[in-house]
Amino acid sequence: MSDQQRPDRDYREVNFDGLVGPTHNYAGLALGNVASMSHGGLVANPREAALQGLAKMKALMDAGYLQGVLPPQQRPDLGALRALGFSGSDERVLARAAGDAPQILRAVCSASSMWTANAATVTPSPDAPDGRVHFTPANLQSSFHRFLEPATTGRVLAAIFRDEARFAHHPALPATPAFSDEGAANHTRLAGGHGDAGVHLFVYGREAFGWGSETLPAPKRFPARQTLEASQAVARQHGLAESQAVFAQQHPEAIDAGVFHNDVIAVGNGPVLLYHEMAFLDEAGTLEALRERMRTPLIPVRIPLEAVSLEDAVGSYLFNSQLLSNPDGSMTLVVPGECQENASVWRTVQDHLLAGANPIGEVVVKDVKQSMRNGGGPACLRLRVVLGAEERGALAGRVLLDDALHGELTAWVERHYRDRLAPEDLADPALARETLVALDELSGILEIGSVYPFQLG
Questions:
Q1: Catalytic residue among 149, 182, 229, 391
Q2: Alpha carbon of 172 to those of 121, 237, 295: distances in Å?
Q3: Containing H/E element for 275?
Q4: Which of 32, 113, 124, 178 could lock 73 by a disulfide, CB 3.0 to 4.6 Å apart?
């Protein structure tokens, strides 16, 4: 699309963070997610988790960044339990699931929708041939507890981005292993500025129809979640041309080290790609393809293995940080507190990032420990949506954070959330009732209408 066709040049990135849900718990459900697996069974604090997330949102809003909010999903998902053969009253369904299939109960209580980097893949209007913002909810078929999310995610996105003249919504891909899609956690847009034409880097772990070839190394310990075929399908849905997309295979050794998504090993913003040496199987080829397609020179910021091991990268979530643009052309990196606690990682932040020849001029540390223990850092908690001024004005609901909304959401959390939740508490029928009351009130606060199954009848 030309500049003449696109008069609105006031493009800014809005980070839509997921509110942590009332059933936030440590069930250890995510195979390949080292933090999730190692903390399974511990007691969680849903109230603290939600307040930590809101505090991060508020801090970024106060710093001048546009901050949005996405609601949690309805949990426990009693409909999913009934579809699996558990029958009777809600109390009976929960009791039977707790007794006969506790892992399934944990799955239908997961608050994983808080990690909205997995909610969808987004293409902003400057890159789309029809000049609209395009959304595809991720099918998340690689794990049962996340496979339950796409239907509600689609309703939430359609409720907020409802102006059909400006926003286009596509169905989630078929929920089969061949089209396994994990959303924006494996997608990065690189461009000179938010309103400039961008190049989309799609990172996949495996090829569904070429698996087993000698030319396609495979992880040996953990599954590769994203397929090339899924990434290509999303690119087609959004109308991206070959010149606008790069498809790169994630390094299988990184997957085996716990890098279950690309956003655990790389983060991009504007023309900057901050990545670990072991992020891509073909590092040189990936960079060359990006340089060929980008209109602005690529600024690669490479962290070598000798500076940060894969173990430290996964343990600190250095790369699962938010890289944000500032008006003066500099960038701010928002990192989890675990980065500061790791000597080699923090030394790398000072020596390779802040002292390096790149636009990163500030590093901000945020405490998101409740999320981190389940395997999600600052970048996991947000879905990046580039919007022009008119598109921002067309948003429905009350989802852009301001002081008033932050205050209401904080009070809402303090009213409805427990400060202690162990896996055995998930069978408590009172928890299910508390959650419905909380979500019904939240949909009113956000003014998004009826998006939850219990509201739809």
A1: 182
A2: 10, 10, 31
A3: strand 272-276
A4: 113
Find tokens 């960079």 and name the residue: 287
- Distances in Å between the Cα of 285 and the Cα atoms of 143, 187, 211 are 31, 17, 20
134 is catalytic: no
CA–CA gap between residue 151 and residue 349 (Å, rounded)? 39
Joined together, the tokens standing for residue 25 give 């718990």
Which residue in 6, 429, 411, 447 sits closest to 195, CA to CA? 6
Return d(Cα 377, Cα 256) in angstroms, integer: 19
Active-site residue, from 187, 200, 352, 380: 380
pLDDT of residue 214: 53
pTM value? 0.93
Residue 310 in domain: no
Q: Which residue has the tokens 């106060």?
A: 62
pLDDT (0 to 100) of residue 132: 98
Query: DSSP class of residue 283?
Result: H
Number of domains in the chain: 1
For the four alpha carbons of 70, 323, 58 and 363, in that order, the dihedral sign comes to: positive
Provide the CATH number for the domain around residue 130.
Answer: 3.75.10.20
- Return averaged pLDDT per consecutive 10 residues of the chain, 457 residues in all: 53 97 79 48 88 94 97 97 97 96 94 94 98 98 95 98 98 97 97 96 92 68 92 98 97 92 95 97 98 97 96 93 95 93 94 92 84 73 96 98 98 97 93 97 98 93
436 falls within a domain: yes
**C-alpha to C-alpha distance for 187 and 262, rounded to whole angstroms:** 8
In a domain, 284, yes or no: no
Is 254 a member of any domain?
no
Catalytic, 380? Answer yes
Beta carbons of 386 and 189 less than 8 angstroms apart: yes
Say which residues have a Cβ less than 8 Å from residue 187's Cβ, sequence separation at least 6.
Answer: 121, 200, 201, 202, 203, 231, 234, 262
Q: How far, in Å, CA of 325 to CA of 194, rounded?
A: 9
Separation of alpha carbons 110 and 28, rounded Å: 10
Strand order, beta sheet including 331-336: 322-325, 331-336, 360-366
Domain that holds residue 417: 12-75+110-239+370-456
C-alpha span between 337 and 115 (Å, rounded): 18
Give me the catalytic one of 145, 261, 352, 416.
261
pLDDT of residue 14: 98
323 Cα distance to chain centroid: 14
Confirm whether 109 is a catalytic residue: no
